[in-house]
Amino acid sequence: MAHRIITQAVLVGARVFGRAFAEAYRQASASSKYAQSSIPNSGSFTSKNFISSGLTLDEACKILNVKPPKGGSADIEEVMERFKRLFDANEPTKGGSFYLQSKILRARERIELEVREAEEAAETEAELKEGWKPKIWKDR
């Protein structure tokens, strides 16, 4: 008699857990699809960039109080200066906020990502204009 009760309790528990897991998976899948569909695909703004940093370029520039990069060029020294000042000012051991510190870090990474992608695109375009010239290394 006791083994039937225990078996029944285990089966009911497994069924409840299975249903909860399946529902959580469905919700996560729907949330992921919604996030992918709500991201615009215009210009150099790709969903990969947005998802990796969680910030748009405008938000990153507002956080660090710098001008958006024009044509892929930005004053990296100014960005780094503002980053260091704000990052140090929000040090948690000095009474700052870890949340703000992480936002500042992500903003710097987002701006650097945008500049790096623009530089790579310009480099590829310059290479295409001059034609493909393989670099041959000769041993002496």
Summary tags:
140 residues, mainly alpha, 5 helices, extended
What topology emerges from the helices and strands here?
Elements: H1 2-37, H2 47-53, H3 57-64, H4 76-89, H5 98-130
What does this 3D model show about the protein?
The protein has helices at 2-37, 47-53, 57-64, 76-89, 98-130. With 140 residues, the chain is an all-alpha fold. The mean pLDDT is 83.
In short:
The protein is mainly α and 140 residues long. The protein has helices at 2-37, 47-53, 57-64, 76-89, 98-130.
Largest sheet: none
Ranges where pLDDT stays below 50 over 5 or more residues in a row are none
- Write down the overall geometry: extended
The helix/strand class is: mainly alpha
C-alpha end-to-end distance: 88 Å
Rounded radius of gyration (Å) = 25 Å
Task: Please count the beta strands (DSSP E, at least 2 residues each).
Answer: 0
Topology order in helix (H) and strand (E) letters = HHHHH
Beta-strand proportion: under 5%
Q: What do the pLDDT scores average to? A: 83
Number of helices, where a helix is a run of at least 4 consecutive DSSP H or I residues: 5
- Approximate helicity band: over 70%
